[in-house]
Amino acid sequence: MSLPQEPVCEPAEGQAGFLRCAAALAAGARLQLTLLSQNLDRRTYGDEAFIEPLTRFLLSSARARLRVLVRHPGQAMLKGHRLVELGRQLSSRVEFRELPPERQLIEREYLIADEAALLIRESPQELLARYYPQAPLLAREQLREFETLWQESPSAMEFRDLRI
Fold first, then answer.
1. What is d(CA 140, CA 11) in angstroms, rounded to the nearest whole number?
2. What total number of domains does the chain contain?
3. pTM for the whole thing?
4. Whole-angstrom Cα distance, residue 102 to residue 38?
5. Helices 48-60 and 82-89, packing angle to 10 deg
6. pLDDT (mean) for 71-96
7. Which domain CATH number covers 95?
8. Torsion of CA 153, 108, 145, 92, to 10 degrees
9. Which domain holds residue 104?
10. Half-sphere exposure of residue 164, counting CA atoms within 13 Å on the CB side?
11. Looking at residue 39, what is its pLDDT?
């Protein structure tokens, strides 16, 4: 009997590396993307290199979904944010929630695609993140934490479209 292999981990160094891996993860997603972020750093989540594959993913299937948990939604709303605008345009496929106050100590940031791929950074100040393009066990483990947080979190009212 052979032991399970360690998943391949690609280092994602600095903001450019994190953006490259986030874009690759979005491009490879088929049905579900989940994102836990501190403030939706616009250098990553507002960059065309991420928005373009994310938009393709969201439009690829009527079942494609993006769920976003944000620690500080107000910071993301200071100036127009492309991910927030995309969420408003595709509101049936994108949902934003805010971490509740008792969970505000969570600093990790991660993106999970289809219970299979994972990009994770332990804190926003970390220069090195880990990208696992094919790690279902790790992705599912992180997704379990996300699901618990998601159930505890209210809708992020800041991201609602307030057209009158």
1. 20
2. 1
3. 0.89
4. 15
5. 20
6. 84
7. 3.30.870.10
8. 50
9. 10-154
10. 0
11. 87
